[in-house]
């Protein structure tokens, strides 16, 4: 009998992470479920029983150096086929109102953790010649230049999620030909406990289950960027074209004329 593949899912005690745990259990994965709330992890683990998944729970706070180090050690153990870095916190506030300790914790959780865990799991995936590294980012990663009253004060969150998008897209190109793939998922608003459950009453919010389905499809297809609400690939294609144009046009030996005159 072929052994079941194994997935490490962070932030699996609720919301998108719990839906991902169920979705991948249904698709034949055993699971390592990580979060801070052990009772909620046990509930999610119990929910996957009908799919015959064997589940290990790991209580860790990824916003702390010790918690992240323990999670990285588990990711590096050599038995993982899929890493889903989903744990995150909004911390929406103007940067001036965020304490230095909060900056450190939020950055570690939202940005450092996905990189550290990917780095930890990668050697064993490369040795096997297969597997996936998935990170749940956010559509807000593309909102840095957007001023809109409806958007929250989000500098730190957007910076962390954009870093995640750039990390995964670049990693995906680095991994071409290895059998290992990287996928970043960028949902819009999702009806979870996120940000005090603010999206739960929004008619335009997607369900966590739909985000999990999109993630599973994107992993199966080997997509580098998955936007669950985006119908066609045109917007992502245009983004890539714009990046290429910026790289080529901006990489010149001479100073651009518009900067040549001193003020
Ligand atoms: N909901 C949205 O509108 C939305 C939109 C775009 C992207 N996202 C992204 O989707 C991901 C999941 O969000 P969600 O909507 O499912 O939110 P959620 O319902 O609040 O779930 C967040 C998950 O992360 C875990 N977590 C939070 N802080 C943690 C820490 N310090 N260490 C370990 N685990 C921690 C939580 O578990 P514990 O509290 O038990 O630790 C929980 O399982 C996040 O990365 C978020 O950025 C969400």
Overview of this structure, please?
The model has no long low-confidence stretch (mean pLDDT 96). The chain has helices spanning 15-26, 38-47, 65-75, 100-128, 155-174, 194-197, 208-221, 234-250, 257-260; strands at 6-10, 30-35, 55-59, 82-85, 131-136, 180-185, 225-226. The protein is built from 9 helices and 7 strands. 46% of the residues lie in helices and 13% in strands. Helix 1 packs across helix 7, helix 3 packs parallel to helix 4 and helix 4 (100-128) packs parallel to helix 5 (155-174). The protein has a 7-stranded parallel sheet with strand order 3-2-1-4-5-6-7, with helices on both faces. It is an alpha/beta fold and 263 residues long.
Helix content: 40-55%
Q: Kindly state the number of beta strands.
A: 7
CATH topology: Rossmann fold
The major sheet is characterized as: 7 strands, parallel
Q: What is the structural class?
A: alpha/beta
Q: Given this structure, which CATH class is correct?
A: Alpha Beta
Q: What is the H level of CATH, i.e. the homologous superfamily?
A: NAD(P)-binding Rossmann-like Domain
Report mean pLDDT, rounded to a whole number: 96
Do you know the CATH architecture?
Answer: 3-Layer(aba) Sandwich
The total number of structural domains is 1
Poorly predicted ranges (pLDDT <50, ≥5 residues)? none
SSE ordering: EHEHEHEHEHEHHEHH
Q: What proportion of the residues form beta strands (DSSP E)?
A: 5-15%
Q: Helix tally?
A: 9
Tell the overall outline: globular
- Separation of termini? 73 Å
Strand order of the largest sheet: 3-2-1-4-5-6-7
Over all CA atoms, what is the radius of gyration? 19 Å
What small molecules does the structure contain? NADP nicotinamide-adenine-dinucleotide phosphate
């Amino acid at each position: 009998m072929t052994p079941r593949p194994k997935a490490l899912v962070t932030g699996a005690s609720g919301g998108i992470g719990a839906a991902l745990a169920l979705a991948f259990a249904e698709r034949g994965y055993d699971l390592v479920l990580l979060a801070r709330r052990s009772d909620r992890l046990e509930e999610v683990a119990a929910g996957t029983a009908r799919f015959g998944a064997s589940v290990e729970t790991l209580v860790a706070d990824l916003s702390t150096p010790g918690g992240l180090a323990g999670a990285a050690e588990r990711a590096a153990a050599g038995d993982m086929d899929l890493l889903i870095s989903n744990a995150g916190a909004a911390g929406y506030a103007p940067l001036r109102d965020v304490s230095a300790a909060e900056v450190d914790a939020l950055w570690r959780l939202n940005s450092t953790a996905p990189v550290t865990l990917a780095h930890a799991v990668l050697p064993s995936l490369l040795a096997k010649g297969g597997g996936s590294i998935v990170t749940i980012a956010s559509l807000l990663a593309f909102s840095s230049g957007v001023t809109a009253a409806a958007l929250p004060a989000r500098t730190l969150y957007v910076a962390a999620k954009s870093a995640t998008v750039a990390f995964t897209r670049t990693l995906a190109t680095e991994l071409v030909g290895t059998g290992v793939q990287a996928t970043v998922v960028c949902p819009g608003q999702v009806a979870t406990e996120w940000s005090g459950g603010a999206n739960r009453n929004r008619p335009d919010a997607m369900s966590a289950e739909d985000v999990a389905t999109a993630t599973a499809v994107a992993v199966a297809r080997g997509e580098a960027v998955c936007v669950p609400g985006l119908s066609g690939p045109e917007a992502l294609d245009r983004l890539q074209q714009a990046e290429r144009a910026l790289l080529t046009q901006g990489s010149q030996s001479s100073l651009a004329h518009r900067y040549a005159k001193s003020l």
